[in-house]
């Protein structure tokens, strides 16, 4: 059996991280959001970034899982000197643009703590935040490297955004392979252990990240 690459990442691998949850009594297939968060932080650290911000909303279980993973990874990473949360937009259109800016992430918030990188959750939020940064004088990637968490439309941005890509299509395919066993009763054998399948996201590197420099 191949060793799990995560074993050397400073985090023990837990086959079932929410033991006791009713969901863990069922067959399940999902994206490994922890590994996706690791890809984002590790990419930025590898480019020399030591202080970063994470911009996410807090309106769903996937977002909360990503937030928890980013917090855990940043806190444990020996090369991350500082990190902070800022809220992503809480909606769309006029609702998101409170005070003309749908996020607390601004050019000033980047400069003051010495932040040079950001992880932005959500396709639309990531694109909007990059636009707001440009309007406030902080250009991506010149002043701030940015990684989007999700990869549906962020490749169409200016610049195209480096992105974590959860394997959504593959999750559906694997789930479809599991489903017949649930329907025909073959998975009901009490001696058979429940299976939880986590699929790893990938990182697509584009023009929104670059090596940290001493001056913009």
Could you please describe the fold and organization of this structure?
The structure is a single chain. The strands form two sheets. A six-stranded mixed beta sheet has the order 3-2-4-5-6-8, with helices on both faces. The protein has a two-stranded parallel ribbon with strand order 1-7. Helix 1 crosses helix 2 (61-76). With 216 residues, it is of the alpha/beta class. It has a domain at 32-166: 3-Layer(aba) Sandwich (Rossmann fold). The chain has five helices and eight strands.
SSE pattern: EHEHEHEHEEHEE
Poorly predicted residue ranges:
1-20, 90-103
Reported for the largest beta sheet, the result is: 6 strands, mixed
CATH architecture of the domain at 32-166: 3-Layer(aba) Sandwich
Query: What is the molecular shape?
Result: elongated
Radius of gyration: 19 Å
If strands are numbered along the chain, what order do they take across the biggest sheet?
3-2-4-5-6-8
How many β-strand stretches? 8
How big a fraction of the residues is strand?
15-25%
The CATH topology of the domain at 32-166 turns out to be Rossmann fold
Q: What is the typical, i.e. mean, pLDDT?
A: 79
CATH superfamily of the domain at 32-166: Response regulator
């Amino acid at each position: 059996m191949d060793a799990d690459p995560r074993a050397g990442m400073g985090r023990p691998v837990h086959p079932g991280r929410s033991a006791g949850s009713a969901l863990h009594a069922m067959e399940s297939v999902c994206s490994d959001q922890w590994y996706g968060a690791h890809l984002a932080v590790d990419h930025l650290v590898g480019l020399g970034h030591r202080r970063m911000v994470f911009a996410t909303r807090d309106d769903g279980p996937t977002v909360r899982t990503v937030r928890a993973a980013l917090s855990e990874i940043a806190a444990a990473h020996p090369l991350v000197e500082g990190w902070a949360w800022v809220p992503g937009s809480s909606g769309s259109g006029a609702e998101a643009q409170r005070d003309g800016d749908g996020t607390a992430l601004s050019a000033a918030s980047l400069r003051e703590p010495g932040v040079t990188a950001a992880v932005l959750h959500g396709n639309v939020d990531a694109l909007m935040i990059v636009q707001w940064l440009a309007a406030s004088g902080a250009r991506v990637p010149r002043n701030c490297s940015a990684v989007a968490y999700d990869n549906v439309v962020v490749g169409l941005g200016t610049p195209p955004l480096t992105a974590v890509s959860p394997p959504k299509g593959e999750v559906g395919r694997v789930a479809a392979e599991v489903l017949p066993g649930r329907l025909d009763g073959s998975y009901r054998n009490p001696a058979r252990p429940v299976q939880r399948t986590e699929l790893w996201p990938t990182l697509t590197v584009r023009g929104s990240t670059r090596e940290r420099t001493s001056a913009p």
